[in-house]
Amino acid sequence: MGGANSEVDENTKTILFESANFHGISVRLTGKKLGLRTEASSRFEKGLDVETVVTAVDRAAQLVEMLGAGTVCKGTIDCYVKKPQVKKLNLNPEKINKFLGTDIASSYMIKLFKDLEFGVDENNMTVTVPTFRPDVEREADVAEEVARFYDYNNIKPTLLSGKEATQGKKTFKQKVEDVIKNTMISCGLSEIYTYSFTSPKVWDKINLPSDSELRKAVVITNPLGEDYSVMRTTTLPDMLDVISRNYNRRIDEAGFFELSSVYLPESIPVTTLPNEKPVLTIGKYGNTDFYDLKGMIEELLDKLNIKKYEFEPFKEFAAFHPGRTAQLLINGKPVGVLGEIHPEVAENFEGPEKTYIGIIDVAPLVKNASFTASHKPLPKFPAVTRDIAMLVKDEILVKQIEDIIKQRSGKILERIKLFDVYKGKQVPEGMKSVAYSIIFRAEDRTLTDEEVNKAMSKILDGLKNNLDAQLRE
Question: What is the CATH number of domain 87-154?
């Protein structure tokens, strides 16, 4: 970097000019290890032409005399340890044309390389690579030079030799991702992209417990700064940042989604590559509620033809409101969480109080998705509908009621429809009124009142015995 003993001041009488060239790879690796970067290192690490060293010092001496800054002494000392070997490569027009799928004349190629200051031997059809082009190392590089100046737009696309029947298509995973993106956009959401790097500080902002596995993150060796020092283990802070930024710019209502990855290490310290788990993150605020978010996820599951799913209350993620959060299960296995963000977390990110987030693993969606079309013939026999209204305790979930109805109805149950939930003066404190339409149908006959009454009797007994439900007359 220079020092006081080499500075030029008013007493300087003699200056020695040094013009040197340094090995680019060595400069880059050393600068990276020392964390030291200068304008000179940024030039040398890219590789400079060693043959320009003498020309450069002669030019510097010329400028000294032109400016009247001193008198140039005669003579130079050249320490050239190892001259680079002159590279000669074959210029085979036929092979280049076959490689590029073109029909370019050899005369065009010869003139091209002469214009590029390559030495061309037309008798032996070879080119000598100038020292300022260290990137040209083999015949493929020669072909690339021809392609660049002939113009890629003039090269007609062709299939590889022997691969004329190759058909390009998307993988099943890519098709599922396309459906996810199209569905989210059709639901009015805007796609976003956020950094995979984050700060360890965000874990406290989302109320993550100190012993949480999500705090075990891959630490980046040479981060851009503390805010980007670890690989993220959850996408929740990034979505909250985007929502906060839009909210504080006075955008009253917005919805976003991101299809990205989180990075979960196998162990700490990291010895192997982390598990890159793809996740879908949905974020909404403004004129919206929990059921809007739930409806978007149900729409997605319907598009992917996933039938065996359910939602259940979830209180284990401290970033979410404990009474307004649900867990998504597919085939009985948890695959995601959705709900309202805890007010404390929303305040930590300076976002709106009513913020709704959904985080769903993509791998289970891919595993259970199906694009096989299916149909069910129109029924030949009429349906029988019975409505029931009952009083149950507030803590009883709709899912518990529906599970009992399904278990007790037998094979003649076609559909259950919840059409009313009421709490008011006519309902005792701590209770709620729930009303259902239950539709029965048999595929091979018309149901009799006796069959339906028998099924309804079993349903009512099950609701009373298991949930202490009281039938409303």
Answer: 3.30.56.10
Nearest to 127 by CA among 95, 138, 85, 97: 138
Handedness of CA 298, 301, 307, 311 (dihedral sign): negative
C-alpha torsion angle, residues 179, 180, 183, 189 (rounded to 10): -150
Token pair of 296, please?
A: 């978007």
Start-end ranges of CATH 3.30.930.10 in the chain?
Answer: 173-368
Q: Which of the four pLDDT bands, split at 50, 70 and 90, describes residue 163?
A: low
For the stretch 365-409, pLDDT in tens is: 999 999 988 888 888 999 999 999 999 998 888 888 999 999 998
Q: CA-to-CA distance for 156 and 154, rounded, in angstroms?
A: 6
Beta-bridge partners for 127: 89, 120
64 exposure class (CB count in 10 Å sphere: 0-12, 13-18, 19+): middle
Q: What is the pTM of this model?
A: 0.65
Distance separating alpha carbons of residues 132 and 118, to the nearest angstrom: 10
Q: Nearest 5°: CA angle at 339, between 334 and 341? A: 125
Contact 218, 265 (CB under 8 A): yes
Cα–Cα separations (whole angstroms), residue 366 to 301, 306, 309, 371: 11, 10, 14, 11
Say which residue the tokens 């406290």 belong to.
204
**pLDDT at residue 221 in the model:** 86
State the helix-helix crossing angle for 290-303 and 172-186, rounded to 10 degrees. Answer: 140
DSSP one-letter code for 289: -
Instruction: Say if CB 311 and CB 326 are below 8 A apart.
Output: yes
Q: Where in the chain is the domain with CATH 3.30.56.10?
A: 87-154
Q: How confident is the model at residue 448 (pLDDT cuts 50, 70, 90)?
A: very high
The per-residue DSSP string of 199-220 comes to: -TTHHHHTT--TT-GGG--PBP
pLDDT higher than 80, residue 262: yes
Q: Decide yes or no: CATH 3.30.70.120 for domain 173-368.
A: no
Rounded to an integer, what distance in angstroms lies between the CA atom of residue 351 and that of residue 280? 21
Domain 384-471: assigned CATH number:
3.30.70.380
Domain with CATH 3.30.70.380 in the chain: 384-471
Provide the 10 A C-beta neighbour count for residue 202. 21
Calpha distance 304→302 (Å, rounded): 5
Q: Which residue has the tokens 């009142």?
A: 449
DSSP 8-state assignment for residue 399: H
